[in-house]
Fold this protein.
Amino acid sequence: MKLLIMSDTHGDEDIIERVKGYHPDAYKIIHCGDSELPYTHPSMQEIERVKGNCDHDPNYLEEILFQVNGDRVYVTHGHLYDVKNSPMKLVYRAQEVGAQIVCFGHSHVLAAEYIEDTLFINPGSLLKPRGIKEKSFVTLTITPTHFTLDCYDDNNNLIDKMFFER
């Protein structure tokens, strides 16, 4: 099962459409907030999406939780959990909701870490990356034994690959 995960596009509807087109086989598409587009914008349709600190449409939720093949996926932007300083508040929230996968943004830093049996993924930013020069998004392939995270630039060039045993 493959998830396509992006964040922090800050009003760039064209990049959202382009990235959606790169991986049409994705089971779900996730946007971790700060799209700065209306909730009902055509580019945001058929996307699991949350409210970032720059999103002002009241229809966005601060967090969502859904199942993928028995795994609980928790999505939030991250600003409410102070993710720029420490992952711990988000780790505690993941434990509260029983998540095996957490997707978040806010820091614009591409990162992934396996903490206490939960995979935490920040896909970076498709507009203003920090820490690397590439604008980024990720795909996550979920199997019963491992997670594979493929990190791409905005032209769909692979920039990193990470494996996490479950």
